[in-house]
Amino acid sequence: MPERFPVTNPATGEVVRHLDLADASDVDAAVGAARAAAPGWASVSPAERGAVLARVATLLDERSEDFAGTETLQCGKPIRLSREFDVPGTVDNAAFFGAAARMLEGKASGEYSPEHTSSIRREPLGVVGSIAPWNYPLNMAGWKVFPALAAGNAVVIKPAEITPLTTIMLAEVFAEAGLPDGVLTVLVGRGPVVGAALAGHPGIDMVSFTGSTAVGRQVAELAASGPRRVHLELGGKAPFVVFDDADLEAAVHGAVAGALINGGQDCTAATRAYVQRPLYERFVEGVADLLGQVRVGDPSDPATDVGSLISATHAERVHGFVTRAVQAGAKAMRGGTAPDGAFYRPTLLVGAAQQSEIVQDEVFGPVLVVLPFDDDDEGIALANDTRFGLAASAWTRDVYRAGRASREIAAGCVWINDHIPIISEMPHGGIKASGYGKDMSMYSLEEYTSVKHVMSEITGKARKDWHRTVFTGDRGEQGNG
Ligand code: NAD
């Protein structure tokens, strides 16, 4: 009997829907169906694949209210965020990859040896196994599924079992848009069961994972049994570096928005603000003041700024980080109070040590730590002083400082005078313990393809010059005579 799983609204604790969880045998069946469907989908023209994605964009847009409501229900995120960020972002992403499907190309051909012409074919890999997290379920499913399908692959995706609903709805939209059976399958199951079976499955050609660094490492180990291609979008601990010439009001607003988006459950959220001494006191005051004005409450209320976290257990985990930081000498200038169910008050900490857990580890909650620095060298060195490298921002009005920060901060993305915006045309992905591989953009599309070199002899000579390296001309003549 399959395990019955209750999908719960974290804000109220109410069960939204019960689902039967998949197990390893369902992975075999889904991968088998995907293998059977993959060659047909690969041979569909890019224009037709693009048209399916374009229809998905239109259908998603028509149902945006349903998708936004469901995302908020299963995640506890504010409805304003679901309506204005999660759903329109996914609509745009589907439209982008619909168009990008038609732009995929190999490099122009050329003669790199006197006797041959070379060209590059980009071909789909076959079947992609995708594993997604709970923080932006619809966005993350789109980031994985759209480029993989646009490139001509079949996909089996496992959403987080606690937030599967919008991924299931997305697959329904794909069916309505004309995607052939078997090309996209959603399997709702537990990570160590279904996720692990997918990552290690012999019928999978690539594993595309978004989630924590710890699980990403396990996924890469399982995928090594192929070996098969791995794409890892992992945790982050984004620094937010404020130089002393920055626009203070912009930096304060940017820090609060960057730290609180999605309740701080965002891999690129601003988590560590480093502020040059002349601005430090005023920055802390400004952030504390603005955090005090933030409305925490019912996620379905459009006036709410911060909803619930993903669960009461996760809120306790976040509070554990804050409690240990305070015990180690940090001071809470805002928040820091015990959670109320899954709700956690936005928290501002000062006085933490650079090497402490709260500065080094991913908290994944509405918690911002602010630390001072003296000169530019120190600010950049502190920004780089964690194991992560997903995203960062630098705040300055000096073009040279901005240039230096964008070069020297080790991250997959450096924003200058902003923090968070993402766009379909540009890549998202990390370095260091934040993983490797890119989501979104043409770079992502290319990752779901293999590069094939086609080398054609163009002289028509039966005896090639290079044959001398294998057998001599004499022996060649005997052979022919
Ligand atoms: P998680 O690593 O716990 O889970 C991610 C997915 O992996 C889930 O579907 C889960 O069921 C599955 N999983 C768990 N154990 C597994 C196993 N042994 N084998 C295979 N799959 C397994 O992450 P989470 O808590 O769902 O999400 C939060 C994390 O995701 C944070 O670390 C965050 O930074 C990261 N994240 C990164 C990005 C990015 O683009 N880099 C984007 C969003 C979230």
Distance between the termini: 73 Å
In round numbers, the mean pLDDT is: 96
The fold-level CATH name of the largest domain is Aldehyde Dehydrogenase, Chain A, domain 1
Our count of helices gives 16
Read across the widest sheet, the strand sequence of neighbours is 12-13-14-11-10-15-16
Strand content: 15-25%
How would you characterize this protein structure?
The protein is of the alpha/beta class and 481 residues long. The protein has two domains: 254 residues, 3-Layer(aba) Sandwich (Aldehyde Dehydrogenase, Chain A, domain 1); 179 residues, 3-Layer(aba) Sandwich (Aldehyde Dehydrogenase, Chain A, domain 2). It is 41% helix and 20% strand. The protein contains 16 helices and 18 strands. A seven-stranded mixed sheet has the order 12-13-14-11-10-15-16, with helices on both faces. The chain has a six-stranded mixed sheet with strand order 7-6-5-8-9-17, with helices on both faces. Strands 3-4-18 form a three-stranded antiparallel sheet. It is globular and about 85 Å long. The protein starts with a strand and ends with a helix. The model has no long low-confidence stretch (mean pLDDT 96). The site of nicotinamide-adenine-dinucleotide has 31 residues, from α7 and α8. Nicotinamide-adenine-dinucleotide binds next to α7 and α8.
What's a concise summary of this model?
By secondary structure, the protein is of the alpha/beta class.
Describe the SSE topology.
Elements: E1 4-8, E2 15-20, H1 24-42, H2 46-62, H3 64-75, H4 79-100, E3 110-113, E4 116-124, E5 127-131, H5 137-150, E6 154-158, H6 165-176, E7 184-186, H7 191-199, E8 206-210, H8 213-223, E9 229-233, E10 238-242, H9 248-260, E11 270-276, H10 277-293, H11 312-327, E12 331-334, E13 347-350, H12 357-360, E14 367-373, H13 376-383, E15 391-395, H14 399-408, E16 413-416, E17 435-436, H15 441-447, E18 449-457, H16 473-480
Parallel strand pairs: 5-6, 5-8, 6-7, 8-9, 10-11, 10-15, 11-14, 13-14, 15-16
Antiparallel strand pairs: 1-2, 3-4, 4-18, 9-17, 12-13
Bound molecules: nicotinamide-adenine-dinucleotide.
Residues 131-135, 140, 158, 160-161, 191-192, 195-196, 199, 210-212, 215, 218-219, 233-236, 267, 362, 364, 390, 428, 430, 434 line the site of nicotinamide-adenine-dinucleotide (NAD).
